[in-house]
Amino acid sequence: MSTEDPLPQLRAFVDERDWAQFHTPANLAKSISIEAAELLELFQWSEDADEAKVREELADVLTYCFLLADRIGAEPGQLILDKLSLTRAKYPAEKARGRSDKYDRL
Amino acid sequence: MSTEDPLPQLRAFVDERDWAQFHTPANLAKSISIEAAELLELFQWSEDADEAKVREELADVLTYCFLLADRIGAEPGQLILDKLSLTRAKYPAEKARGRSDKYDRL
Amino acid sequence: MSTEDPLPQLRAFVDERDWAQFHTPANLAKSISIEAAELLELFQWSEDADEAKVREELADVLTYCFLLADRIGAEPGQLILDKLSLTRAKYPAEKARGRSDKYDRL
Amino acid sequence: MSTEDPLPQLRAFVDERDWAQFHTPANLAKSISIEAAELLELFQWSEDADEAKVREELADVLTYCFLLADRIGAEPGQLILDKLSLTRAKYPAEKARGRSDKYDRL
To answer: Which GO terms describe its molecular function (chains A, B, C, D) (predicted)?
Structure first.
């Protein structure tokens, strides 16, 4: 599966509305938390949630994440891979297998 | 810029640790909120934050977002684009230009 | 049970450290979200959490809530009661009994 | 100022709706994060927010905090005071004065 790059359309959307002025890293960080909570709200009282709504709310979190990545000159997929090498070292497969404990309790 | 697809490595990382059992949509939604708040913490008392830390915390949010997208069979870039067409209709450029108001106050 | 008023000690704690300068409403709102996520983290992978830790993290959320209430000249118990009368009207007992639906779906 | 105890009315409100079944500690922790983000949303693009809305959203966070405290048999004011003695030790006034650094960087 190839990953569709939404960045050109995201940037055009922001430019057409002159919204870059609001998109400071601090404001984008707040926005990510706010949208993450709207996603969480779908699971507030139950383990199950309407999947169409999950897609929409997850899209909102991802949108602000991509905008913040763009703002700091980073590429989302690369950020994930860079962090993954750190996490691999913190959670060695043989120690972490089948456990949800934090790395300092493995 | 082409977007690196981190999904094959993410899936391998999870499989090697047998962690898919913990990654229910509800748990991933909680995880996204938790990591979003760690990102926000970098801006708790100031508009400025250490960029290396921003990259790491943003990577954590993105990681759980990609895992949730994968779990529901969605592709992150496509989710963003699907939502963007809805948002375009809610925030017409000529009305929303230069304003941070919610769509129902434009 | 009478409610202990922690405000005099909270105010003294903040004054001794000259921290009121950081406690703008916006920063306190961020702090409440950050601490709320630390509480949530105790339930990230399980319905059960260590109760001593729940007490500590809940205390952190409450502390910032009380500081924000104080900052805007409000009394926490009174805020709750004022909102409760609004919520009573939105969720009439006979309609809402035993249901976790939002008021617009009752 | 004496603190009004909202607990008797809160308990009656929940009982009349038979909602205690939904109020597990895990669900209340999610609810606190969700409401905290609605408070944060008032400050999403600006340092200033409508004060009537701040009071309402802060009330929602406080309500779930009081319900969780009640659920674990704790008293909100006492929780704050218990935690405050720990925080006093971590942030000695002479070291922390006028600084927003974390305790491990003082």
So the answer is: nucleoside triphosphate diphosphatase activity
